[in-house]
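dumping the sequnces here before i forget
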Amino acid sequence: MNIQTGFVQISTRGHSDIVDITPQIHEILTKSGMQEGQLTVFATGATAAVTTIEYEPGLLRDIPETLDRIASEGAHYHHDATWGDGNGHSHVRAALIGASLTVPFISGRMLLGTWQQIVFVDCDNRSRQRKIPVQLIGK
Amino acid sequence: MNIQTGFVQISTRGHSDIVDITPQIHEILTKSGMQEGQLTVFATGATAAVTTIEYEPGLLRDIPETLDRIASEGAHYHHDATWGDGNGHSHVRAALIGASLTVPFISGRMLLGTWQQIVFVDCDNRSRQRKIPVQLIGK
Amino acid sequence: MNIQTGFVQISTRGHSDIVDITPQIHEILTKSGMQEGQLTVFATGATAAVTTIEYEPGLLRDIPETLDRIASEGAHYHHDATWGDGNGHSHVRAALIGASLTVPFISGRMLLGTWQQIVFVDCDNRSRQRKIPVQLIGK
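..and the predicted 3d for all of it:
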């Protein structure tokens, strides 16, 4: 049993930008040489989240549109009164989607579906540089 | 410390069908002989999710009804324009609930509440056969 | 590699009360002496959830208000017909947010953002005593 911690570094456009980070995670897994275990992807920062989707252009519009119905950018947020940074909706969206995702792997391959990618959702209201921890536990 | 990966196989009816998979997971845990650790349940495929609920008939209706308010089956989805398979709402719902759940166990028992079950939520718009990874790490 | 299971004990006010449990988790991590690994926080019980937020007064109002739009306390729930305990909305909210969160740590510190706290969200419709498992796997 062993642990390894890697990082994926990306630029996002914010505004619920959805970035496919599966290739970078696959590379971290392959380089680790681990065959069986799990990897945890974590969104460091309270305005971003991690989930899985089929990464295709339609859903890249559908998911932000749904998030805008749940926690509209135009609504009033008490958070904005605290800081004045106008990203109350970003915080609420990120808290609902969730910050961590744990994916099992066997035979050196993640147990993702054929059309299932690991995505980072940057809900902040501006472009950001993000450093995303990916931690492997296995053998 | 050891790792074991098992699978739960189920048939679902789709349409946000909620299936209690706690008994099968309990059996995998018991057979492993592990006493302390955690197990990760993962929804392989981008139209399904994993969470916990009190598994009783009322919530089996309340949760799909809530999902239909958040991401209605009748709404327009750009995803459907891409593939024409009419399950845009399925993808959005699954991405929001989330694909992974990690449950700690001690003394060979999961730390679930008395009225808390692990459920697989199949948001797809048709019945499906699902093979759900359950990975144990512990001792 | 080692495993340790601790518990955080809190009182909540219910009604989507959001409690910052980061200090107690930090203490469990520090006492463990582990340097690299992950910790899983789990909401035992089907009316509570775990996520991360920036813990400031504005969001402590914004998140319950958003949850009340998604699963209003005043709406009809079939769950309430089953048990008559009036907390159908609590169950639905908890299932959507999710019961588990996994946070990696390195050099003995969790990889949280500067303004990111681990919170327990008690969606039940009354005050509760909660015992929250925190399980560390690492070295």
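Chain C has a mean pLDDT of 97.
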